[in-house]
Amino acid sequence: MTAPFRFPRFFVTNPSPCPYLPGRNERKVFTELSGENATELNDALGRIGFRRSQNVAYRPSCADCSACVSVRVAAAEFRPNATQRKLLRKNEDLVVTACKPWSTEEQFALLQRYLSARHPGGGMTEMDEMDFADMVEQTPVDSHVIEYREPDEDGRPGRLVGACLTDRQGDGLSMIYSFFDTELEHRKGLGNFIIMEHILCAARAGLPYVYLGYWVEGSARMQYKIRYRPLEKLTRAGWTRFDPQERVTAIHNGVSRDEPPLRGELARVFRK
Fold this sequence. Notes:
The chain is of the alpha+beta class. It has helices at 38-46, 82-90, 105-118, 129-137, 190-204, 264-270; strands spanning 11-12, 16-17, 25-26, 28-32, 51-53, 56-60, 68-74, 95-99, 143-151, 157-169, 172-180, 209-216, 231-235, 238-242. Strand 9 and strand 10 form a beta hairpin. It is globular.
């Protein structure tokens, strides 16, 4: 006889300065993910806008602000536009591998370079190797580190240029955190490529959605999340299609129904 499911206990953090909107404070509600039902709980909370960080699920619970909006891409309906197709072709040589959630020195070094270039002065820049190991390895759910490597002369995986900590949920992939080499002139847009690779992977694996976390209206740092359609946002009425005015108009043009194939170990892992 199975043990009864215990309803989780939720807690609220103290207000602290918002990292996205100057002059505002943020507050979060969170609960622990542990025990035999951690996966089921994470899936259920993910569908109502929670995100995972190590063994905690959280979502914004700000007193006077609702700018953070959970967004997800309907993977099967995604069709890359002309610019996105070009980006996919430019990076199709990358070797993509789904790795077990174990941190490496190479990953941490890439993260440090990424944070220094894109988020100098941010809270994550203070992470050391132990903090990074906790971020990757403390997971009670089905997680992988998706690595993106340039091939060497023999076509084997070479230098690491991108990575993403990704959860496989019951209804899709949740991109927990991605980082990449920002100094490669021949691979500009690598972060966008990583998102599209996840969307195409989910579609091929029969997973309906790719969860991108929170989109914050008015935050320039978050505008990249509205480049992929169909996009859905979580409202009080549930998930609804979302087409914000800030979306680049070019996304409506050059639609193609050709989808790059899902490759290698990434296909095997996410077809489970």
